[in-house]
Amino acid sequence: MDNSAMPFGQAANFTAQESFMTSTTSVYQLVSCNGCGKQIHSSALACPGCGAPQPAAQLVTDKRILPAMLLCFFLGCFGIHRFYVGKVGTGILQLLTLGGLGIWALIDLIIIVVGSFTDSEGRKIKQWT
Ligand SMILES: [Zn+2]
To answer: S-adenosyl-L-methionine: present as a keyword of the record (predicted)?
Structure first.
């Protein structure tokens, strides 16, 4: 029996040379244009190629302060202004609690008037009409 031990001293000589992925998650993520499919910056408001407006441009809501305010003022206890902006869940909650006994509705009214009320997409409602 040849019992020569394997010299495995140098086996532990591998340099952990991991390919260092410098994944600096780029702020400028590329998205494909929903008009022409071209790669454009995610922050672009419109495609430089075809001019198609991009989702980032849709930061403006189509909801308005005035109708929201009127709904909140007259029907705030029923959460109708929340239904208006698309916040159905909290609208129902408000309806069931009678606008948080009026307090919640009142707070909403103030937030609406100062232009900080948001729609269901989290976009601030800043325009009056
Ligand atoms: Zn395009």
So the answer is: no
The model's pTM is 0.56
Residue ranges with CB less than 5 Å from ion ligand 1? 33, 35-36, 38, 47, 49-50, 52
* Alpha-carbon torsion angle 69, 74, 77, 80, nearest 10: -60
pLDDT digits (tens, 9 = 90+) for 71-126: 999 999 999 999 999 999 999 999 999 999 999 999 999 999 999 999 998 888 99
User: Exposed, middle or buried by CB within 10 Å (0-12, 13-18, 19+), for 47?
Assistant: buried
